[in-house]
Each structure stands twice: as structure tokens, then as C-alpha cells.
Amino acid sequence: MKKTSFFSERIKPVIIMAVITIICIALVSGIHLSTQDLVIANEGLVLKKAVLFSAGVNLPEANSEINSLYDDRVEQKGDVFIVSGSSGGIAAYAFIAAGPGLWGEIEAVTAFKADLKTFAGVDFIKQNETPGLGARITEDWFREQLRDRQPPLVMNPEGTESSDAAEIDAITGASRTSEFVLSIFNDAGVRAAELKKEGM
Q: What is the pTM assigned to this prediction?
């Protein structure tokens, strides 16, 4: 029976694993560095789309047109995005509102009309809610129902379709997510009232 040396039994596997690890780290780092600018650009585009959508602006198809529209219609002051109307004047004030979700933080761009009392709309830019349940907050019907509502809001069961300016529908089977989102919306209403007091 051939006896294996200490080097081939103990040291050689460690060296091989170290070399493989270094190669893998170098590959992942290279991919990260080569795509970093694209990732940043895409994150910026997601925010621009959310600001425009939440303010009620119809989005064009092409990304270059979205960038151009954003540059023409949006001015940022601190963390507030001031969206002008197509014929001038202020159409909406938008800002990021965040809060806890069921599985992680939820971030939304909330927009208020020029009166800073009435929601212009909302778009979610970050959420980790359960697919098919809480993640339905990103569906059009849920986002669109916020338009023209006035906080503080209350939730009704899904399908109620209330016309009251302070009521929105919850998501069936996602009561915790609905509660978290309601809190985010009402906190956004408080923030909008503060902006109004500041003379925005």
C-alpha cells in the first residue's frame, strides 16, 4: 500500500481550493466592475420612471425619451422632486416614502398634487413581499387607486372600490402588507403637510 505524503493529503487540496477561490473572486469582481455603470444607470431610470408615473405623467416607450421627459419636467430640491405640468406650473411634488414590509423594507415614490393634500399617485421601487400576495402592491389596480385620494387613508376589503377620498382597497390574503403600505401612505401624507407648512 502506497503511503500518501502530508503535502499531497493536507497542503495540496488547500492550495487548489485557494487558487479556485481567487479565480472565482476575480471573475465576479470583474463582472461587477464591468457592469457597475449599467446598474447605476438602470437604477436611475427606475427612479425617473417612478417619479413621472406617480405624478401622473404618461410614460413614453423609449428609455431615452423617458430621460428627456424627466430632464424637461422634473426639478429636484433636496429629496423632493417637483414635477411640472405639460403646460407649465407645478403638477406634483414627489418624494420617496419608506417603511417596513413583511420580508424587508418597502420603498415607494409618492406624489401629491400641487395642493399637497391629494395624492397624484404612487409607484413602488423596492419591495420583497410574497409573490402573488403582498407583491400585488405593484399591480396597476393597486397603484392607480391611490390617485385623487386624501390622507389619512383607511383600508377596505379588496373589491370594495370605494369612491370615498380617504378609502383604498386592501389586498386579499396580504393583510400585513396592506397595513404596512397604509402606514407608508399615511406617513407620506404627514410629510406632504410638513412640506406645505415649509412653503413648498
A: 0.79
